[in-house]
Amino acid sequence: MHNQPNTVMLVEDDDIDAIALEKAIELYSSDIKTMRATEGEDALKMLSNNRPDLILMDIRMPRMDGRTALSKIKSDDCLRSIPVVMMSTSESDEDIQFCYKNFANAYVVKPIGFDMSTKMVSNILNFWLKTAIQ
Fold first, then answer.
1. Residue (of 84, 78, 89) closest to 14 by Cα position
2. What does the pLDDT profile of the chain (134 residues) look like in tens digits?
3. Quick one: which of 15, 44, 21, 45 has its CA closest to 34?
4. What is the DSSP letter of 2?
5. Helix, strand, coil in percent for the chain, rounding step 5
């Protein structure tokens, strides 16, 4: 039996969104550890010492946004294999195309409301931590 990976990095500058994501992850499984960075530069610093099994990253953040951080992660030989799911309120074709051209593993539009967010997180974790990594 495959041991479930258990570390998810959240890269999210909005405290309310981050708390909701952490709560949704906890509801999915109390065995999953979360790490949080509030913007891309902090995420890259954390990645130099930690290797999460999955990164959930917002696009719009101060200092280094998610688009720049994604490009840096996916151009780094040591980090590029970590699945990165980009999350945004943006449904802009430009944002979506940029993320996929820069090797995002998925792009999801953040839903409104905790129930829908919990369902989205559950679907992401089911796929990336149970199906794709096996």
1. 89
2. 345 458 999 999 999 999 999 999 999 998 999 999 999 999 999 999 999 999 999 999 989 999 999 999 999 999 999 999 999 988 999 999 999 999 999 999 988 888 888 999 999 999 988 887 65
3. 21
4. P
5. 45, 20, 40
Domain annotation for the chain: domains and CATH numbers: 7-129 (3.40.50.2300)
What is d(CA 131, CA 29) in angstroms, rounded to the nearest whole number? 16
**How far is Cα 72 from Cα 9, in angstroms, rounded to an integer?**
16
Identify the residue whose tokens are 């039996």: 1
Q: How many residues does the chain have?
A: 134
Residue among 123, 58, 45 nearest 84 (CA): 58
Pairing of strands 33-37, 7-11: parallel
